[in-house]
Fold these 2 entries.
Entry 1:
Amino acid sequence: MINDKMAKALNEQMNKEFYNSRLYLSMATFFHDINMEGGAKWMEKQAAEETEHAMKLYNYLKDRGARILLTEVPAPPTSWASPLAAFEDAYKHECDVSKEIDDLVEMARTLKDNATLNFLQWFVDEQVEEEAITDAIVQKLKMASKGSGALFFMDRMLGER
Ligand code: FEO
């Protein structure tokens, strides 16, 4: 049986991951709107991954006998100044998520909850990857912003995800 405080924090994280999915889906609609289908596809895949993150937490809570509570998910932003601004937001958001995961790890450690510590390691590794990927796209978009041709090829590359 999992500690109530730990279960509550993991439940909150599950709801945050559902928000993350909606955030990326909203970004996908922005990319559709500016006719960058590659960017839209990238964001749709990311949204699906975020739902998987939420479901990992859901299944873990279920396995540990915790009561799972789905709470209200806030509306995400709906527009960005540019493709670069959207990916800069994505990168910043992933850094915030990494901090949330670190806080959960800290709680698990304090509560001597080794099962949760072990479970969270997947998220720790995933965040390293998510920060690196979004930051790399930000850097490329900065270079591409110097010419519309480069942005066109960048969109193609994003669509190959
Ligand atoms: Fe599930 Fe990208 O944080």
Entry 2:
Amino acid sequence: MIYGNFIAGEWQLPGASGTFPVHNPATGAVVAEVASATADDVRRAIDGAEAVQPAWAAMPAIERSAIIRRAAAIMVDRIDELASLLVQEQGKPLAQAKGEIMYGVGFLDWFAEEGRRAYGMTIPASVSEKRIIIAKQPIGITVAITPWNFPSVQLLRKLGAALGAGCSMIAKPAELTPLSALEIGRAFEEAGLPKGVLSVVCAPEPYEFTDVIMADPRVRAISFTGSTEVGKILMRASADTMKKVSLELGGQAPTIVFEDADLDAVVVETMASKFRNMGQTCVSVNRIYVHASIADELGARLQAAMSALTVGDGLHELTTVGPLVEPAAIEKVERHVADAISKGAKVLVGGSRSSGLGTDQFFEPTLLIDVDETMQVMQEETFGPVAPLSVFTDEDDVVARANATPFGLSAYIFTRDLNRAIRVSEALEFGTVGINDSTFSAVQAPFGGYKESGLGREGGNMGLEEFMETKFISIGHIR
Ligand code: NAD
């Protein structure tokens, strides 16, 4: 199968720059070849967006809403096919792939409606003859750069908001997983989206794409999800043309389990957060702090739950943990585990690659105990199926340990004490805090990070703001 790029409403077949392969991380097989976009392709996508932007912005929100909803319905009709493709390019278990697509469709439905509620306001003026009107307007041509871990929802969350706000969007999916984004382009084409409002440009060399985008003053906003390192590069590069930047970056999520926690809930929530997408999730629990009085019991319960997981190809019905996306990802996980063991951690379950499953990119669900802050697992984002357990006794001390990171995306606490839940959730420097809840994803809530985890918010009513300008119209008195 060969995919072209979707540029200004046309499918562009591979040109002189050829194609690049997309591999199935479970089997190593080539799933498809994708045309490599050139700098000229990127410019054509911007030209196409420029041509249609005024008409798209002027279209009544209710009509834009109908097109977005049609695309959502097409994706639901094709859920089996889309989910299978997502598993093949990314590796997650099939049920999770379906869940991801339906979550993304939820963003389309949400923003189809939010676009109809892009309210402005009037404000009492200080002079009786004057009137002050505040209007919201689409920012214009936007760009989405998305990572490989959720190839469908990461784009749909941005795209729904941009389209709902009246903006055009050029999407650049991760080079490891471009197929879901191309299929999203197809769904919108079939839904009747005007040509040029959405382009999907697959650039195996992201720097070349960024150079064209950043140099072009017609592009007004960049919405990026990915690593903090690349987020910083993009923020610096956007300064010359002063583009609006929203950044959803890396995390290093702590879970704090207090002595009065409901351990059944801790296990269910932590397993879901830790092992969804093989731990390759920015909000995945990365370090677990457990009160010393219940540490052994929680360790034993997590050990039992993790031993019951099934590692394998995401397309197999029984699989609950698929392969990691690429060799570099599993090498990082191995490095973190080896580092922890060399500094005194003990392995309760797992600890190494699973063999005999296809590629060598499968890692056993792993539980580490006797972990402390000198270890990489407690400092960096592991992005893999490894759960480190570290013991605490004092509330202030554990909050300080949880906050001692440059990241601030999400954190979780488990307690039955309402006062403590409020106190600790307010003290944690994270954009999302789950109280007795580690699976908080919701289209109607604003999601984003503190500190080096990002800028701006996606989802909820705030998600639309990232793609809008605020205009102050001052009306004077005509004499
Ligand atoms: P990455 O930063 O390497 O890549 C993300 C995207 O950026 C890809 O499309 C890639 O092609 C592109 N890219 C890379 N270098 C670029 C450049 N110089 N110019 C333009 N584009 C460039 O991240 P990744 O490895 O794909 O994803 C994993 C990271 O994403 C993790 O750190 C994870 O925490 C983070 N993440 C954050 C969120 C969030 O919502 N905060 C969600 C998912 C993942």
